[in-house]
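During the reporting period the student researcher (J.K.) took over the structure-prediction task from the postdoctoral fellow and processed the backlog of single-chain submissions. One of the processed entries is reproduced below for the supervisory committee.
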Amino acid sequence: MAPSSSLQSKLKVQLKLSISRLRMVQQKDTAIAKQQRRQMAHLLEQGKEESARIRVENIIRSDITTELLEILELYCELLLARIGLLEPKECDPGLEEAIKSIIHAAPRTDVKELQQARQLLVEKYGKDFALEAIENRDGKVAERVVKKLKVEPPDAVLVDLYLKEIAKTYGVDWPKAQSKRQNGNDEEDDDPGSGQVVKSLEEPLATEELTKATPPRDLGPKSPVSIAPPSPSTDNLSPRVKLPGPPELKPTAKMSGLKKQTPNTQSQSDLKGEDANDRGKKGVGGKIPDVDELARRFAALKK
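J.K. obtained the following structure tokens:
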């Protein structure tokens, strides 16, 4: 058996390689799953439902495998973070689930780096420990890992959910039977000869109500700049967007002096206007003569 220090250093390197490799495999499987989903949507659009139901099982299996690789990646990161606890010969209770899960699940994956890390763990803790992990005698292997490794056909409910989600994502009208039923019900409701009462048209709004109505917000050109409100937090439950407004102009000393002078000038102009009106009413010589006085003046002139 190799010394514990050299074995620990090899295990540390192998765990790092396993983590990077597991991430690459997950990204690759995710990209392949997207292509397969597009193919499923194309089959549903063509009406090949039976073929889509069979092929969607591969997508479900691929998703389960991706989830398993994600769990094993987390266990590798845990061992790498607690690499110092791997020095003793006996397995630490806090790492027993991670170690036994890796030993149990690594042969079922195609990641060579993870299988090499498994060999190092078996070499360190012995064959008996490895047999317990492979057979899961003590039940220390994570239950979610055991469920992901089960090979069984998916439920029909799960298959329907996958197909509905794929159809919704790619805008495919599926299932068509339900849509036809809904369209038939709508046509029956719209048919006035089916014995149902047709709703009368609403009366037009009066002019007063139309003037009171507020125009829609979407009317007119939209601003090219849009500001999303901030998400609520514990400090501010109802955040609001505050836009910068125009700066407030404070009056200067000259402006305040002009404002004080304006009422005086207005009062003087009013007085002048009143004097001019009085003079116009009185005439050039003073008061306007009456008719009797004018008659007397004409009589005096004739004499």
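The committee noted the following: Residues 4-46 form the longest helix (43 residues).
J.K. will present the remaining backlog at the next meeting.
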